[in-house]
Design brief:
heterodimer; A: FAD/NAD(P)-binding domain; FAD/NAD(P)-binding domain; 5-stranded parallel sheet; 10 helices; 34% helix; 26% strand; B: FAD/NAD(P)-binding domain; D-Amino Acid Oxidase, Chain A, domain 2; 8-stranded mixed sheet; 29% helix; 25% strand
Chain lengths: 368, 362
């Protein structure tokens, strides 16, 4: 199988990148390991206000429909239930489903594998009833199953707060949202939960969870003060980290950026990696908001198109500076630190390679 | 003065950690082990971890392997459960013409006390019914087995720590200076030199680079092996089989490849597919198994294939231990190197393993 662009992962970043490349008539293949496109949008019923200009403000699941609808008339092949499992010596990508393994010869690869949830370890963490907030969201919104009646949420961030509210709206009693940090920077988050009569406890950790065959009780430690709670559900929201395996197999180099989720591939202002045919976008390029996921996908797709000779330099330059402005606006709406870390990450890689940053990027640097 | 040691070991893989532990049993010396990374992040952590004896030739090399395998039960009593299992080892062959070679192996190994049998196809299938009926026969020995390399290295280190050995990880050695009666070792994370009376090079695949710091040419090659791992399957393989074994958790580890591509730990689809095909040739029922992971490890292969062990010629108080099959050999190599350093002589002669054999006559 041959293609101009191969996209690894059919979540919001992969879909948006495919829209960009395929709408220019470029042959595009999306590899998606699950049964359907959409990635995490499949269960995101929450409303997203902060989206790029071409999208109305809408719920995650509606955005998924919007993206798939825009993609469907375009020359894109979507291989569902297919995984990237390796790379051949000649650079072709090894793809497998349940029955066969075959190579795809792609001129450019855009890796949009997204992120995995971080968990937390405490005695009893393997008991049934202990899950990530993402898993709980899948259960209520996609599978229509109530994961429990009385829940404790571990870790306070915008995603865990959102899921906490959704769990409460389903009738689950929330005994509290705990966080190990002494204070929470985002007062809006705390207020939003307390408005819904949800107890927020900082400086608090789980000592242990116990139960016969499933979680029944949890002991929390609030600054030395211990408290037992009867619960049947613990949801862990410790943030996300990029999924990197395909980039490792593709021989991309990595760097550490705490604010982007830890280890992330090194990339240029083009979102091209150290492997000249590989681009990265979405959460795989550093944990960001949905707007950031969508815009980075456009930046990567734009530069892949330019490298393929589809766009001329001038077109690429104009779109690029527009997209970087948009990315800054998306990310500063949620957390400007993400944008600053991303720019620093790019600057570092350019310096390491002694490759000057494009002139348009200097304005961005000054803004940081 | 805190950075002064009697012995510094460079490299904390299965060999470095074993030497450290065995030296620490004497409880006489101040010992430091330095590693550029973290234990098990390199070769010792990317192996099928056979304890493999029966077709190691010539016989003197087989003998060394046998003595080491025999030390495992004793080692476990000292450092704890390393999941050593003497499963018996089967090395299948596909052509009848290989039978003569097998018979010669039996004769040669018998001279040093390694009991090897040549099995007919029916005998092989009786022992391992899952093997392919296309197999012509196999050599077999009950001396072979395997071990959990993660537990092994971890327990060597823990036991050494109990005996007050110190460790410094993520700390590459960047310079070594030989002075009159000691070595000065400069590392990335320490401004001041570490001084030591004796130094032992146990750098595995990095032996060449470490040797260069002392102006030595250590003749080893880096040879990549790619290993694929199946989903956990119901226990069906009892023995360690040439190229594969079933682990305690049901996963089957399979690997045959050898590539000289430098220190590149990636896997490639080409080799993964060849490896899977080889596995199916051996065990047809594996065609239905899902492969869930793959990894590669970089073997240390001395130019002539045999361990490099002992004192470094012309360098006072410097020693080296670099070899393939470090997992099999670690209990014995640790014991012998400790004897050499502490007592000046070893209970098994190491002369033939000296680095001297590679050195040009000046």
């Amino acid at each position: 199988m041959k293609t101009d662009v191969l996209i690894i992962g059919g979540g919001p970043a992969g879909l948006n990148a495919a829209i960009e490349t395929a709408s220019r008539g470029i042959k595009t293949i999306i590899i998606e390991e699950s049964y359907a496109l959409g990635g995490q949008l499949k269960q995101q019923t929450q409303f997203f206000n902060n989206l790029p200009k071409q999208f109305d403000r809408q719920r995650g699941i509606h955005l998924m429909r919007t993206l798939i609808d825009r993609l469907s008339p375009l020359p894109v092949t979507c291989l569902l239930k297919h995984k990237m499992i390796g790379v051949y010596k000649d650079g072709r990508i090894g793809i497998a489903n349940d029955t066969e393994t075959f190579p795809i010869d792609a001129k450019k690869v855009i890796v949009t594998t997204g992120a995995a949830e971080e968990t937390d370890l405490f005695p009893g963490w393997t008991l049934p009833g202990v899950m990530t907030v993402g898993a709980a969201q899948i259960l209520i919104n996609r599978e229509r199953v109530l994961p429990g009646k009385n829940a404790l949420i571990v870790g306070l961030n915008s995603f865990s707060a959102e899921v906490t509210k959704q769990l409460k709206a389903c009738g689950i009693n929330i005994l509290g949202v705990i966080d190990k940090n002494v204070s929470v920077n985002d007062k809006k988050l705390v207020d939003g939960l307390e408005d819904k009569k949800i107890r927020v406890m900082v400086n608090t950790v789980i000592e242990r969870a116990t139960g016969a065959g499933e979680v029944e009780k949890v002991t929390i430690n609030n600054d030395g003060k211990k408290e037992d709670l009867d619960i049947d559900l613990i949801c862990i929201g410790k943030g996300l980290s990029p999924i990197l395996e395909p980039l490792e197999i593709l021989d991309c180099e990595f760097g550490f950026q705490a604010k982007l989720g830890g280890l992330v591939p090194k990339y240029y202002s083009t979102l091209g990696t150290s492997n000249p045919s590989v681009y990265v976008a979405g959460n795989a390029a550093g944990i960001t908001c949905l707007g950031g996921i969508l815009v980075t996908a456009e930046i990567a797709a734009l530069n892949a198109l330019k490298a393929l000779g589809v766009l001329n330099d001038n077109e690429a330059k104009i779109s690029s500076s527009f997209l970087w402005d948009e990315l800054r606006s998306m990310e500063s709406e949620e957390s400007i630190e993400t944008f600053i870390a991303r720019v620093a990450h790019i600057k570092e890689f350019h310096e390491e390679c002694e490759l000057p940053l494009p002139a348009s990027f200097h304005a961005i640097l000054e803004g940081c | 003065m805190t950075d002064q040691y009697d012995i510094v070991i460079i490299g904390c893989g299965v060999i470095g950690s074993s030497i450290a532990y065995h030296l620490s049993e004497y409880k006489q010396k101040r010992i430091l082990v330095i590693d550029k990374g973290f234990p098990l992040s390199g070769t010792s952590g990317s192996t099928q971890a056979w304890v493999w004896v029966h077709n190691k030739v010539p016989k003197w090399y087989g003998e060394l392997s046998m003595y080491s395998a025999e030390l495992y039960p004793f080692l476990e009593r000292k450092i704890g459960d390393v999941e050593y299992k003497r499963t018996g080892g089967i090395a299948p062959f596909f052509a009848q013409t290989d039978r003569d070679k097998a018979l010669r192996l039996v004769e040669e190994q018998a001279e040093v006390g390694i009991k090897v049998e040549v099995l007919t196809r029916d005998q092989v299938l009786e022992k391992e019914p899952a093997l392919s009926p296309k197999i012509a026969g196999a050599t077999y020995s009950d001396m072979d087995g395997n071990v959990n390399p993660f537990r092994l290295v971890e327990l060597y280190i823990k036991a050494a720590k109990r005996n007050e050995v110190e460790f410094s990880f993520y700390n590459p050695v960047i310079e070594m200076v030989m002075e009159k009666d000691h070595y000065k070792i400069y590392t990335k994370n320490k401004k001041d030199a570490i001084t030591t009376e004796r130094v032992i090079l146990a750098g595995g695949p990095w032996s060449k680079e470490i040797g260069e710091l002392l102006g030595l040419d250590i003749p080893i090659k880096q040879v990549r092996g790619q290993v694929i791992i199946t989903e956990p399957l119901a226990p069906f393989l009892k023995h360690t089989i040439g190229g594969m074994r079933q682990a305690e958790n049901g996963e089957v580890l399979i690997g045959f490849s050898k590539e000289e591509v430098g220190y590149d730990r990636r896997t490639t689809m080409d080799v993964i597919q060849e490896t899977a095909q080889m596995a199916i040739n051996y065990i047809p029922s594996l065609a239905k198994a899902n492969i869930v992971r793959s990894f590669s490890g970089v073997r240390v292969i001395p130019e002539d294939g045999f361990p490099i062990l002992g004192k470094i010629p012309d360098k006072k108080n410097a020693y080296i231990a670099a070899m393939h099959s470090g997992v099999t050999l670690s209990p014995l190599v640790g014991t012998l190197m400790a004897e050499l350093v502490m007592e000046g002589e070893t209970s098994i002669c190491l002369e033939r393993y000296s680095l001297k054999r590679f050195m040009n006559y000046a």
